[in-house]
UniProtKB/TrEMBL annotation:
Pfam families: DHH (PF01368), DHH_CID (PF21763), DHHA1 (PF02272). This is Phosphoesterase RecJ domain protein. It comes from Methanosalsum zhilinae (strain DSM 4017 / NBRC 107636 / OCM 62 / WeN5). Residues 363-455 form the DHHA1 domain. One of its GO terms (molecular function) is exonuclease activity.
Length: 465
C-alpha cells in the first residue's frame, strides 16, 4: 500500500470515529455518476453501522444551499464528491461536517478527506467515490464496495488520461480484483459492450469520432457485413460480449484500418483500445456489469432530477429502480446525440486561447459539460480548450473541458474559472481538465473575454517558467 493511501486512511479513521458517535447523519452529494456512487458507498456503510441517514443531491454547493442545510440543524453532515471548495462557508454556517471530496480544495479542516491534501491528483488518481470508499473502509469491512468506487472513477473519466486507472484508483481496483468483485482487461473502449448490438457500438463512437461510421447506422451495418462474420444482420444482432476473441480482434483491426484510411490521427485511433472494468457480481448483459455503462446509467438518472433512482440502483435495487433507470437512459442517449449534433451544426467560436459554443436552451445545463467533453473529438482545433454555455433558470451554466496536452501547456481550468468568477461574478471550480461555473446572464460576454485572457496568461507564465 502506498504512503498516500496510508495517510489518507489515517485521516479517514478520524472521520469514521466522528461518524460512529452519531445517531443520524445527513448525506449531501453531487448529481452525477461519481456523486451517486459516493452516496451509495457511504449509505451502505452507514446502514451496516446501524446509523440512520437521509440523502440530498445538489448540482453544486453554494452559500444558499449551505445555509438551508444549516437551518435544519443536522447532527452531522457528510458531503461527498463536493464541499472542498466551500469549507469556509460550511464552517461559518456552524455545520458539524465531514467533507469527502476530490475537487480542488480551498483550505483544509480536521475532518476533510481529499487526495489533493496528500499529494495525489484528484482529477486523475482518485474520484469522490474512491475518497468515500477510503472513508467507508474505516467504518467497517466495506471492501465489497470497491466496485462502486471504480464506477465513480470511470464516470469522471479518470481512466482516460493513461488508458487505464492509475494511482489510488489502481490500489482500490486491486482490492476489488482480490475479492473477485472486479476484473480489468484490455478491450475495445466503445460504449455498450454489454447491452448494445455490435453495430450500435460503432454508430455511437464519439472518442474517437470515426468518419463514415459515427452517427451512420447504415454505414456501420454495411461495414460489419463486409467482414464476413456471423454478427446478426437481419436476425438478432449479437453484442460485443457474445463474440469470440478472434471475432473481436478482427473487428478491432478493421476499425484501425478504416480510421487510418479516413485520416484519423493515430493517437486518437489508439483510444479505441484501453483497459475496461467489469463488475463480476452483476448479471452479464446488464449495464451494471460494465463500469462505463453503469456510470452512464447513473448519469441518466441524476442529471434529469432523478438521483434517487440512481442511488437505489447503487444500493442494489435491480427491479423497479433499474427499470426506471433504463428508461431514463434511452432518453439520455438521445439527448447526447442531439447535443453533439448541435455542436457539429452550429460550430464553435474561436478566441485566442479558447473556443466556445452557446447552447442557449438547446442543451440541458446538467449535460452540457458531457457534450463539451464529447465535442473535443469533433472540433477541428484540438489546441484550444472548449467552453460551453447553457441557459439555466437563474443565469448561465458554464462548462469547460481541456486535454492532457493543454494541461502540460499550463492550463488549469479550475483556477481559470475561479479567478474569472472572482473578478467578474459567479461561482465556479472543479478540476484542471474539467471545470464549471454559474454566472449571471448579462456577464456572459465579459466573462468569455476575461477567461480568454486568463487562460492566455496561464500558458505564457508556464512558457516563461
Ligand atoms: O464534479 P466532477 O468531479 O464529478 O466532474 C468531473 C468531470 O470531469 C466529469 O464530467 C468528467 O467527464 C470530466 N473529465 C473529463 N476528462 C477527464 C477527466 C474528467 O472530461 N480526463
Ligand atoms: O437493450 P436495449 O433495449 O437498449 O436494446 C436496443 C436494441 O438492441 C433493441 O432493439 C434490441 O432488440 C437490440 N438488441 C439486439 N441484440 C441484442 C441486444 C439488443 O438486437 N443481443
Ligand atoms: O458541470 P460540469 O460537468 O461542467 O462540471 C465540471 C466540474 O466543475 C465538476 O467537477 C463540477 O463539480 C465543477 N463545477 C463547479 N462549480 C460549478 C459548476 C461545476 O465547481 N458552478
Ligand atoms: Zn467527482
Amino acid at each position: 500500500m502506498s504512503n498516500t493511501y496510508q495517510y489518507m486512511k489515517q485521516r479517514a479513521s478520524k472521520c469514521a470515529e466522528k461518524i460512529r458517535n452519531q445517531q443520524a447523519v445527513h448525506v449531501v452529494s453531487h448529481i452525477d455518476a461519481d456523486g451517486l456512487t459516493s452516496a451509495g458507498i457511504i449509505c451502505r456503510a452507514l446502514e451496516r453501522a446501524n446509523i440512520e441517514y437521509s440523502v440530498q443531491f445538489v448540482k453544486q454547493l453554494d452559500e444558499m444551499i449551505i445555509t438551508k442545510i444549516a437551518d435544519q440543524n443536522p447532527e452531522l453532515v457528510i458531503f461527498t464528491d463536493l464541499g472542498s471548495g466551500m469549507l469556509e462557508t460550511i464552517e461559518n454556517c456552524g455545520i458539524n461536517a465531514i467533507v469527502s471530496d476530490h475537487h480542488h480544495p480551498k483550505g483544509d479542516t480536521e475532518f476533510h478527506l481529499n487526495p489533493h491534501l496528500f499529494g495525489a491528483n484528484g482529477s486523475s488518481e482518485l474520484s469522490g467515490s474512491g475518497t468515500t470508499y477510503i472513508l467507508a473502509s474505516q467504518m467497517g469491512d466495506n471492501t465489497d464496495l470497491a466496485d462502486l468506487a471504480i464506477v465513480g472513477a470511470v464516470g469522471d473519466l479518470q481512466h482516460v488520461k493513461k488508458g487505464k486507472l492509475t494511482g489510488l484508483n489502481r490500489e482500490i481496483l486491486a482490492e476489488g480484483v482480490k475479492i473477485n468483485t472486479l476484473s480489468c482487461a484490455r478491450d475495445i473502449t466503445l460504449f455498450g459492450k454489454q447491452t448494445r448490438p455490435v453495430f450500435k457500438l460503432l454508430q455511437f463512437a464519439s472518442d474517437p469520432y470515426i468518419p463514415g461510421l459515427t452517427g451512420n447506422e447504415d454505414g456501420c451495418i454495411e461495414f460489419l457485413a463486409g467482414m464476413d462474420l456471423p454478427l446478426g444482420g437481419d436476425e438478432r444482432w449479437r453484442r460485443w460480449i457474445d463474440l469470440e476473441r478472434e471475432e473481436k480482434q478482427k473487428i478491432v483491426s478493421a476499425l484501425f484500418q478504416h480510421s487510418l484510411r479516413a485520416g484519423v490521427e493515430p493517437y486518437k485511433i489508439e483510444r479505441l483500445v484501453g483497459e475496461v472494468y467489469t463488475l463480476l457480481n452483476e448479471r452479464e448483459g446488464t449495464e451494471m456489469r460494465d463500469a462505463s455503462e453503469y456510470s452512464t446509467l447513473l448519469n441518466a438518472t441524476a442529471r434529469y432530477d432523478h438521483a434517487e433512482v440512481g442511488l437505489a440502483v447503487c444500493m442494489g435495487d435491480r427491479e423497479q429502480a433499474y427499470e426506471s433507470a433504463r428508461r431514463l437512459l434511452s432518453e439520455h442517449r438521445q439527448n447526447l446525440v442531439q447535443g453533439l449534433l448541435f455542436v457539429k451544426e452550429n460550430g464553435v467560436i474561436q478566441l485566442n486561447n479558447l473556443q466556445y459554443f452557446d447552447a442557449g436552451s438547446s442543451i440541458r445545463e446538467t449535460i452540457v459539460g458531457i457534450i463539451a467533453g464529447m465535442s473535443t473529438s469533433i472540433v477541428d482545433n484540438r489546441n484550444l480548450p472548449i467552453i460551453a454555455f447553457a441557459d439555466t433558470d437563474d443565469g448561465v451554466k458554464v462548462s469547460a473541458r481541456a486535454t492532457q496536452d493543454l494541461i502540460r501547456k499550463g492550463i488549469n481550468l479550475s483556477r481559470a474559472l475561479s479567478q474569472t468568477c472572482e473578478e467578474i461574478g459567479g461561482s465556479g471550480g472543479g478540476h484542471d481538465i474539467a471545470a464549471g461555473a454559474t454566472i449571471p446572464s448579462i456577464l456572459k460576454e465579459e466573462f468569455i473575454t476575461r477567461l480568454d485572457e486568463i487562460i492566455g496568461a496561464q500558458i505564457s507564465s508556464k512558457r516563461g517558467s
